[in-house]
Amino acid sequence: MTDVAIQIDTLSKTYKGGKRALDGVTFDVPRGQIFGLLGPNGAGKSTLINILAGLVNRTGGSARIWGFDIGQDARNAKASIGIVPQEILFDPFFTPRESLEIQAALYGVPRDKRRTDELLAAVHLSDKADAYARTLSGGMKRRLLVAKAMVHSPPVLVLDEPTAGVDIELRQQLWAYVRELNAAGVTVVLTTHYLEEAEELCDRIAIINHGRLIANEPTRALVGMAQEKIVEVTVDRDIAAAPANACFDKVLLKGSRVLEISYRKDRVNAGEVLAALQGAGLGIVDVSTKEADLEDVFLNLTRAAA
Questions:
Q1: Are residues 158 and 131 located together in one domain of the fold?
Q2: Are residues 244 and 274 in the same domain?
Q3: Which terminus of the chain is less hemmed in, N or C, by CB atoms within 10 Å?
Q4: Which CATH number belongs to the domain containing residue 275 in this structure?
Q5: Going residue by residue through the chain (306 aa), what tens digit of pLDDT does each one get?
Q6: Interior/surface letters 185-223, b for 16+ CB within 10 angstroms, e for the rest
Q7: How many domains would you assign to the chain?
């Protein structure tokens, strides 16, 4: 066995009609990490996940889950992964307890090995264990999906937009549980539109756009790719117009004494920006900076690849 949880090699998918959803995507998901899979709507993320889940047939390439080829050893590959879908899918006439028991039976988990009560407690549904699923709130249904994905104790868990449309408290509860799973050795693959979530949670992030892989880096390295920085400077007197300088990319006058200056950190540094202001005869009273974040990188990369 290798240190790779998921291995994707030149994976392609072309739908009837010629739409190419995946175009030779290649990357590895390291074991034991929380791995982010990001991209705009329609980028190919769900197609990739559905191929791993066995719901969509690939056109070309290969994929392995925990060392098992999804084509040649589909049974073991499916047993090695749990999928939490983006859509809320459930049977309204089963209780959460019954849903987990049925799911475990489908995976061939013996009765004495099932963790139904443990999973219900982990996703804060113990008090709803015997209520009809149709009476659960949207957030409860989403938590039930996470529990269903874990009934067979897979070493890999894929979460497809798990916090879409849920409140802040539930989101925090869900991420606390994901961190617990990861600490226990579960490799987590996450797709999300909340970039601050990905930046906080993920060890590594891959970005797909128009079916192609455009980035695959450790999160800190990816954030470090952002070259634009912003400094907000309060000066010592009222000014009618923002000063111009070759080291400024953009200058915005936010108040009679407050300037917001954008510059590229690969060309100049903050000291040169402040020196340019002083050279224009302005005294500096206060300075604050805005660090680049994942959103800046994501937008820059996807625009460049469009």
A1: no
A2: yes
A3: N
A4: 3.30.70.1560
A5: 569 999 999 999 999 888 899 999 999 999 999 999 998 888 899 899 999 999 999 999 999 999 999 999 999 999 999 999 887 777 788 999 999 999 999 999 999 999 999 999 988 899 999 998 888 888 888 889 999 999 999 999 999 888 776 778 878 888 888 899 999 999 999 998 778 888 889 999 999 988 999 999 999 888 777 667 888 999 999 998 888 888 888 898 988 899 998 888 778 888 899 999 999 899 999 998 776 667 777 777 777 655
A6: ebbbbbbbeebebbbebbebbbbbbbbbbbbbeebeebb
A7: 3
